[in-house]
Design goal:
- With about 270 residues, this protein is an all-alpha fold.
- The chain has three domains: about 70 residues, lambda repressor-like DNA-binding domains (434 Repressor (Amino-terminal Domain), Orthogonal Bundle), CATH 1.10.260; about 60 residues; about 100 residues, no CATH class.
- The chain contains twelve helices and no strands.
- The radius of gyration is 32 Å and the shape is rod-shaped.
Length: about 270
């Protein structure tokens, strides 16, 4: 009966013998004053093993065993501490599966050099690290990819919104102060959020009275109409801004945000009036 040995293919991200390590081994051998044949003899290997050692020093043996490295260093009267810095370059990297998951998660950011993309990459790493510290399971790569893509799209949308609000604010030809610009940007985002929440089919739904009472909760409030929510946002901003943003400017900004929202949501589900 012939026994079959199954050899798994090595993935490109698994350990590969670095050429620098071969050069370091050659330097250690020369420091000890040994030739390749003498080294093979001290390692108590078969005749002709010196050819394998030469290939090892040239970096042509990609997957050497730990026993081979240990015998090599022992024959050269060297220690593992002399090669550890090179090996640490590999062990300090992310695990193989985690590397693949991260590559999948950040696939939507490939080629994107914007500040938002860089920040999202850092955010993704910190989120996974926090989940590990809390003892939670890592998110699947596809879920991480969707989350990163949503956040990137949201940040780009807000960047477009901020630009539109500032253009409307600067239309009279006078550049406003920093405080006024920040207030206008906040107001534009508040209006945008109000438009999103009053879009038909949004996730903001009232809890039915019977079901809320059955679960011991207070019954949910009905969804506010768009006009009422926008009026509340305007009132809140007038209280915050005072005279910095007059009512005329607020309404101009609101109209600009509405136009931008209508352009980006054409063919949507409709409006909950």
């Amino acid at each position: 009966m012939v026994s079959k040995t199954i050899v798994k293919k090595r993935v490109g991200s698994t350990f590969v013998f670095p050429p620098e390590l071969g050069e370091l081994l050659r330097a250690l051998r020369r420091r000890s004053g040994l030739g390749v044949d003498e080294l093979a003899h001290l390692m108590d290997r078969r005749p002709g093993f010196s050819k394998h050692l030469s290939r090892l020093e040239r970096g042509q043996v990609r997957y050497p065993s730990l026993a081979l490295l240990a015998d090599y260093l022992r024959a050269c009267r060297a220690s593992f501490s002399e090669v550890l810095p090179l090996l640490d370059r590999y062990t300090n990297r992310l695990p193989v599966r985690e590397t693949r998951a991260r590559e999948t998660a950040l696939s939507g950011l490939v080629g994107d050099r914007s500040r938002e993309a860089v920040r999202l990459g850092i955010y993704d790493l910190k989120t996974e690290a926090a989940r590990k510290r809390a003892g939670q399971k890592p998110l699947p790569p596809q879920k991480r990819a969707r989350a990163v893509s949503r956040q990137l799209a949201s940040r780009r949308q807000y960047r477009t919104l901020d630009r539109a609000v500032l253009d409307e604010l600067n239309r009279p030809g006078v550049e406003p102060k920093l405080v006024v610009r920040e207030l206008a940007r906040d107001y534009g985002r508040m209006v945008w959020k109000a438009l999103v929440l009053t879009e038909a089919g949004s996730k903001e739904k009232a809890v039915p009275e019977a079901r809320g009472a059955k679960r011991g909760r207070s019954p949910g409030r009905p969804r506010k109409p768009r006009k009422q929510r926008l009026a509340e946002v305007e009132t809140r901003m007038r209280e915050m801004a005072g005279r910095a943003l007059p009512l005329k400017s607020l309404r101009r900004i609101a109209e600009r945000v509405k136009r931008l929202y209508a352009e980006t949501h054409r063919g949507g589900a409709g409006v909950a009036e």
